[in-house]
Amino acid sequence: MIQERPDMKGLLGIAEGTDFAEVSRRGLEWLRGLAPYDLATLFELEGNELVARTAQGRLAREAVSGHRLDLREFPSIREAIEGRRARIFTEHDHAHGEGDPYDGVLDLPHGHACMVVPLCAGDETVGLVTVDREECQPYSEETRGLVELYGQIFAIALERSQRLGRLADLRERERSAEQSRERVSDPARVLEESRSPRVQELARRARAVAETDTPVLILGETGTGKEQLARALHGWSARADQPFVALNCAAVSKDLVESELFGHVKGAFTGASGARQGCFQTARGGTLLLDEIGELAPDLQAKLLRVLQERRLTPVGSDKEIEVDVRVIAATHVDIEEAVADGRFREDLYYRLNVFPLELPPLRERMDDFEMIAGTLLRDVAARMGRPEPSVAPEALEKLRGPGWSGTLRELSNVFERALILDRDGRLDPDDIDLPAVPGATAGPASDRLPRADGAFPTLAEIERAHIQDALERSGGQIYGKKGAAALLGIRPTTLQSRIKKYGSEAPAA
């Protein structure tokens, strides 16, 4: 029976592909029309090893994925690559040579049809294709010649897809860097033009450390703008033209955090259909923000420490190390010292990250800058929603500053987003400002429960003391933990302890 040859149109279509995995799959399918097979595998050349990337045919089992061939153990395959000639293997080659490439992986019969096809494009060797058939009849010389010619075209298509992939990665890095430059200006201005002495000192320290590669640990309550401070540090640094990459360690599944950080090779785990760069590789030359570092699993803390110390990493599923050049900034709302004391965070990693800590005050302690902060957030939200920036009525700002609500930057951003959805006239009025309910508001404000024999309005210190006392009563005197008073108040346990000492608050009697 005469084998029907595939048309050239399909081959040209493969050469126009841009995705390496898709070009590989289509290329092996097209090869079936030249050399019928039960298994065709594309191996990519990595140093002295061939690594299986794509397999087609009824024998393309999971065991084939990631299969490696050491060329030092297969001199005949190495000679085929160096000579750039396809080679047919016979039963004698398998019995008296170096053995079959799939020994220990597949149970192929002795004398089965086998052929290897080098993939060379210009001066570059992409890899090799192995073609196997359980039928005990070798491929013909005519087939070998056709497949050898096809291998040259296939290699060009693969090399082109690799080159386009690298170009797309470069463009993505440039786009990320441009976005970083655009987004860093407002956060930096808010810090530098602050009227708060505490924030001015923070900006001075941030400016100083930005000029170095020293690790920075940003501390602060949830929603205080830790990522914005990290972007400002990046924008002030010599790495400003390189990518800024942020990873929220608490927002990624524990099973995927390692891959997100360090990348993975194809076949590293179920679902890894292709190689993927991690955040360290994406951010090379730039800055990597590890947000919520306190949520990182202990085993990954050890691997992160090694990367910080040695500036080298190993992608998941690979045995090859990659050098990294990244400035690391960590951020957390967790009391890291408490986590270290409890054994939840490695002490050596803490000291490695805590070289230069910066603590961001919450919005309620930056009210002198409220108008500037609100304007910055509103511009950012409007740009993200594709809306023109509206004006804000003074009464609306006063409502946001009012004593009935003291939100975080994140909450304020959400308020603006809700307002922009409802706004129709390009001006935010008090009625457009939908403030979230304050937890515990049904019990009445703490100031209403203060003894005021003279009828005078309570001081801020009196209100704060009463609020702390309420939290201690609700938590049964517990300060630490998810149900502790510090969590109820949204502040760090060490901060609460200092306030208790200041105001002389007491836990309820047992």
- Termini, distance in Å? 93 Å
Summarize the biggest pleated sheet.
Answer: 6 strands, antiparallel
Strand order, sheet with most strands: 3-2-1-6-5-4
Helix residue percentage: 40-55%
Label the structural class.
alpha/beta
SS summary, helix count: 18
Q: pLDDT below 50 for ≥5 consecutive residues: which ranges?
A: 180-185, 439-447
Proportion in β-strands: 5-15%
The shape, in one word, is: elongated
What's the count of strands?
15
| Mean pLDDT level | 81
| Radius of gyration, CA atoms, in whole angstroms | 31 Å
In short:
This protein has 510 residues and is α/β, with parallel strands linked by helices.
Q: What structural keywords apply?
A:
alpha/beta; 14% strand; five-stranded parallel β-sheet; 510 residues; elongated; single chain; 18 helices; six-stranded antiparallel β-sheet
What do these coordinates show?
By secondary structure, the protein is an alpha/beta fold. It has 18 helices and 15 strands. The protein has helices at 8-15, 20-31, 75-83, 91-96, 141-192, 197-210, 226-236, 257-262, 279-282, 298-310, 336-341, 347-353, 370-385, 394-401, 409-422, 460-474, 485-489, 493-503; strands spanning 39-46, 49-56, 68-70, 87-89, 113-121, 124-133, 216-219, 244-248, 287-291, 312-313, 322-323, 327-332, 356-359, 391-392, 427-428. The chain has a 6-stranded antiparallel beta sheet with strand order 3-2-1-6-5-4, sandwiched between helices. Strands 8-9-12-7-13 form a 5-stranded parallel beta sheet. Helix 1 packs antiparallel against helix 2. It is elongated, with a radius of gyration of 31 Å. The termini are far apart. Mean pLDDT is 81; it is low at 180-185 and 439-447.
